[in-house]
Amino acid sequence: MLIVKNLEKNFGKTKVLKNINLEINEKERVVIIGPSGCGKSTLLRCINQIEKPTKGQVLFEGIPLDDKKTDINKIRIKMGMVFQQFNLFPHLKVIDNIILAPVKLKLMSKEEAIKKGKTLLDKIGLAEKINNYPKELSGGQQQRVAIIRALMLDPDLLLFDEPTSALDPEMKQEVLELMKELGKSGLTMIVVTHEMQFVKEFATRVIFIDEGKIIEEGKPNDLFNHPKSLRLKEFLDNIK
Fold first, then answer.
1. 130, 149, 180, 231: least surrounded by Cβ within 10 Å?
2. Are 130 and 94 in contact (CB under 8 A)?
3. Can you tell me the distance from the alpha carbon of 184 to that of 176, in angstroms, rounded to the nearest whole number?
4. pLDDT, tens digit, for every residue of 1-52?
5. Segment 50-67, tens digit of pLDDT
6. For strand 79-82 and strand 157-161, is the pairing parallel, antiparallel, or unpaired?
7. Residue 15 bridge partners (DSSP)
8. Integer Cα distance of 44 and 13 in angstroms
């Protein structure tokens, strides 16, 4: 589904990502871990081309994203992203936030979008918040609405950039449980997070990045219980 080849990203003279090679298969739940500032979020932003890689290539469903002929906006319909901040429009009600993109992109009529939005909100227990404004929701509720907004476009791949970092512990759990449910449904997901217990329970594969390089990757049990690299062992010891 997704192939990253020899990807590098520099900010000025600082090399943030160094020769990243990665392949994501359909229905995988891949979690990227590593110390703060190691390049995890930058990698996600290069994958969906919010940041342009300095070198290398990203292919999504066989399409090279750096090709001038590629319509990146069409790609982003199938490659959704959920950010640390909820980024809901404060002047729009929940339902209007959710239906904005599919209606504006003419992917469905307003009536169809409202029907789908109501169904998704009902599934996550927020049906009664449909006419509320974002400021009337808790942080966990806002982030769940942001996830539903991304799901409205029926993405093939969903990227999560530390989606619970701005939430308190109780609200974090609401969002993490929703992500687990999405994983069970077969949605392909790439997640950047510091929530290690969640990683152990959720991931089909874990990638450890440090100083812009992939140091180690494998199944959660292997990485957490039998780390091969000294750097990963040090990282795990520091977060216990």
1. 180
2. yes
3. 13
4. 999 999 999 999 999 999 999 999 999 999 999 998 899 999 999 999 999 9
5. 999 999 999 999 999 988
6. parallel
7. 10
8. 21
C-alpha distances (whole Å) from 66 to each of 35, 43, 212 are 29, 15, 21
Q: If you search the block for the tokens 């993109």, which residue do you land on?
A: 101
Note whether 112 and 121 are within 8 A (CB).
no
Query: Which has the closest alpha carbon to 146: 173, 128, 126?
Result: 126
92: phi > 0 → left, psi -120 to 50 → alpha, else beta; which? beta
Nearest to 150 by CA among 115, 179, 184: 179
Q: 């982003």: which residue's tokens?
A: 76
Distance CA 20, CA 70 (A): 22
According to DSSP, the residues that pair with 69 across neighbouring strands are none
- Given this model, what pLDDT does residue 171 score? 85
Beta-sheet strands, E only, within the chain: 2-11, 14-24, 29-33, 55-60, 63-64, 79-82, 157-161, 188-192, 205-210, 213-218
8 Å CB contact between 164 and 193: yes
Residue type, 92: L
